[in-house]
Amino acid sequence: xxxLSKPAAIEHYSFIRNCMPAxxxxxxxxxxxxxxxxxxxxxxxCEEFGFFKVINHGxxxxxxxxxxxxxxxxxxxxxxxxxxAGPPAPSGYCNKRIGLNGDVGWVEYLLFTTNSCxxxxxxxxxxxxxxxxxxxxxxxxxxxxxxxxxxILELMADGLMIQTRSVFSKLLMDEQSDxxxxxxxxxxxxxxxxxxxxxxIGFGEHTDPQIISVLRSNxxxxxxxxxxxxxxxxxxxxxxxxxxxxGDSLQVMTNGRFQSVRHRxxxxxxxxxxxxxxxxxxxxxxKIAPLPSLMEGETSLYKxxxxxxxxxxxxxxxLADNRLEHFEKIAAS
Length: 333
Known about the structure:
Low-confidence stretches: 1-8, 19-23
Shape: globular
Largest sheet: 8 strands, mixed
Mean pLDDT: 88
Strand order of the largest sheet: 2-3-11-8-13-6-5-4
Order of helices and strands: EEHEHHEEHHHEEEEEEHEEEHEH
Number of helices: 9
Helix content: 25-40%
Number of strands: 15
Radius of gyration: 19 Å
């Protein structure tokens, strides 16, 4: 079991009250990427949930287990050792603090940019002779997950009957792609057992600003998503599969046909949760706007903006804010 260097007293964290018994939702869309109908099922899942699970994904199991092993090894280090890798600038380690605007959670994490070696020196100081093994596991995993994400985006384009099937995936494959990768560790919190009827927030509710997010976690529950009716459901964990989130940028590119999924993570009283997330983003200069091929005479719901402009706005907001509202077109009265 990975143990987090003890954070501040739990009263400093956010809680939610259980209005009904927490149940795992069995209706999460399941997409088998090896099946010919996957492109249509992906579109349906993005329209109805903004979220789905994929199997037969092609990511080698050893890449997954190797990186998780390296992550567990890192998070098991004393806090003073882990802090040698931080704070994120843009890559590095952080404990409790999420972003720059006061959000906190029962979590510690490592953040990386996927197109630079800016963190190499820091990790050499933490891992010493093992730093190359960590870097190799990280690169192998990111490369395989990026390939899968691009395959999903191309199937998505096929399902939407867009002639250029690389319209989304080319943004992730671009050398200037502003994609990031995060390793999260949510330690167990035994104190929660005494707080019946309340759950503590590990990572607060939010949407992801990028195009697509690819999540994999160990077999500890905690992830929840918000349905279109505003109800929250728990997502059953599956360490052999991946979960896909529609991001804000993809919502804009589809003119709201797909909607980014609001999600959060709850702390677990007994078990440690480790998750790995690839956030596929476009180049900073890329203009984000609804695709003309999807408009069919519709009016654009969003102003055009660059990814740099949206990223800056998102990172200046609170985690739970509706970041897209500043970029929505106001209908004429």
